[in-house]
Request: fold
Amino acid sequence: MKVLVAVKRVVDYAVKIRVKPDKSGVETQNVKMSMNPFCEIALEEALRIKEAGLASEVVAVSMGSAQCVDTLRTGLAMGADRGIHVEATGALYPLTVAKVLKALVEVEKPRLIIMGKQAIDDDCNQTGQMVAGLLGWPQGTFASKVLLDREKQLATVEREVDGGLETLCLDLPAVITTDLRLNQPRYATLPNIMKAKSKVIKKYTPQELNVEIKSDLEVIEVTEPPKRKAGVIVSSVDELIDKLKNEAHVI
Amino acid sequence: MHRFISSRSKFLLSKSSVSSISHCNHLSNSTNSADNKSQSNPSTSLPKLSGSSYQTQNLNGSPYFRRFNQNLSFLASKSGCNWFPSSGYLPNCAISDGNRSIIRCFSVEPERESIEYDVVIVGAGPAGLSAAIRLKQLCQEKGVDLSVCVVEKGAEVGAHIISGNVFEPRALDELLPQWKQEQAPISVPASSDKFWFLTKDRAYSLPSPFDNRGNYVISLSQLVRWMGVKAEEFGVDIYPGFAASEILYGANNSVIGIGTNDMGIAKDGSKKENFQRGVELKGRLTLFAEGCRGSLSEKIIKKYQLREKVNAQHQTYALGIKEVWEIDESKHNPGAILHTLGWPLDKKTYGGSFLYHMKDRQVSIGLVVALNYRNPYLSPYEEFQKLKHHPAIKPILEGGTVIQYGARTLNEGGMLAAEAAFGALHEGSNLELYWETLRNSWIWEELYKARNYRPAFEHGLIPGMAISALEHYILKGKSPFTLKHGKPDHEATDVAQLHSPIEYPKPDGVFSFDVPTSLHRSNTNHEHDQPAHLRLRDPKIPELVNLPEYAGPESRYCPARVYDMSQMKEPTEVTDQCSELPTCKACDIKDPKQNIEWTVPEGGGGPGYSVM
Reply:
């Protein structure tokens, strides 16, 4: 059984981001980039499934500029068998990504797609759900536990929802998106990094996959959140009520 | 954006203790699936589990170990853990902090994979990368192939690089003469050179002792990153995120390589879910290019007594604290270079500040304080904050914002090493050649000419300036005498009684900042859940010596305020704030009784400098 893992190259979570002076976006020049943490968790889960003998191959996919290859190499160093890079410049929004993934699924025919629940740069939380919708596959999102049954070809997914935990049983093929508590990703060891250099990364262009890169969204402006104002010490309860009513408009 | 580390580590600490016992049951299953992951070195096959020790773990689980004598539990876990399962499921073995040195004795067990290279270089800084590039160039010239690798503890090349920086391209011209065409990030030529003597309110312009014509104002972090790319183009294997933590010695006490850190160890020394054993990198030759006060280099210097052998004086250091600001367009003057002397440092403290205008409206401003300062109440961080309020400096920063902050100690020579190394490996010549070529090079000449500046300041600011002026303008470095440095930096601190506490103004949040704000800007992040990497050799000394005699200087010289005397409850470890360390190593140098030992933390953590 083949497992497809989609990974995204984003600004590293530890970086203090700044807005570009022209407010068109976040400064990404000379800034450390790494694999989206949720994608790392997804890849780790795929690797564990393979190591448990339930999958034959783990393929990592990434879309974007040429530097995505670095992220794929990290994925290969963690243990993925092959990489696929879809070269595309410019902004890629979830629907476009989902369409590309659908086209790749028709080529690779995996039985399971595992992705991170959302990317930490745009926090969209849409791509996994859209892929499942386009393919007509069942989806188990916000997974905090995944159990595969190969004979019965189903996946039992425990999801983190607002009210607690929900357990779903999905028929394969299915899409799973991972949440934080699913696992802790392994470190890529030096020997594995060396081995990853010889693993194959196949390149595609969106044209080859018959997907048109067009976005229905346009980012108009990006600004920093307003700085917190200092607090005010009120002198009486009446003053507090007055402020809550007339200034904050909450009562 | 999410902050992952705190939520991950907090949650997983509880999770791993629950799962450890269940993992023991998976052991038999998981070792079978170990076939999937092939080991590169056939000698490190998976040794079998001995039956009795497996039993021990099954019965006990983690709490059992903690009740036992440290040594006993350690040995029990050692014999039981004699395998490396690839599935990542590992029982919790309590290996306490105090016994980590014992683990190192076992390093030659077949537990760690070992990779061999011709040359192993520790540190992907300017020196390490220059050496790597030069080696590969020599290989191309002579038609030889040497395998070269560089290990770097920062998460990426350039992450731990911080420096002024005004760059003289002479060495780069020799190494990579096409640097301009190949778009090295060196683009702002020096346009003006100012030198001011500051008092509290005024700035007096002095003739500049530096001549920076032909030099460039750059960000060294970016240059090193570019060099990393070049090195990889030459075929050098660079491994960022791996910290070299121990030196491997061979049969005849020679250095045969280094070992990287084990990763995924929790604060109490137990193995976490994603524990990974370090690897051994063996080289026919090992080059240590760790930068100032490198932890492994210091060990080597001590072991082979390298300083004594050449009658060298002790190394003196300074602490540099720096910020990069993005300032108002109207105030920005690319290529402008400013150095100052005097205020805020007093007559007895050697140091000065710099302000360099880079490109993109960015300026680099910093203060360098020699670590042989006498007053234990001195806080270099606060002095830097004061500096920014000076009437001549403040206007430049007005309207700007701070982008990054960092600190590092510096020594008051990479390419020549490669040539000597190549010679040694290829032609069998002696490495003594390095020393000779160094002596004959222009580097030596420059360093020789500058040798008397720092020791001159031993006698105070005015005599220091007088002697330096004499040296520079008149004698031009050819003086017949070589002044000696005074006491080593850590001994230079006077007892607190001889000085009075310095009142530092509170940060105003616009020009001066408190420490947590600054640390936030250094993009520093270490994995929280790892053993403390600052150790006290003798836990009683802070209470018995540092506090009463020196008024706890470590709470002041540390630019990250890691040491807080009032909260020093657990004497064997330093406080939990190790996670916010910019790894400058000032404490290793300045502690009066040399009681603090800096060991390298898990690779991939630490500051994330990008424009420093």
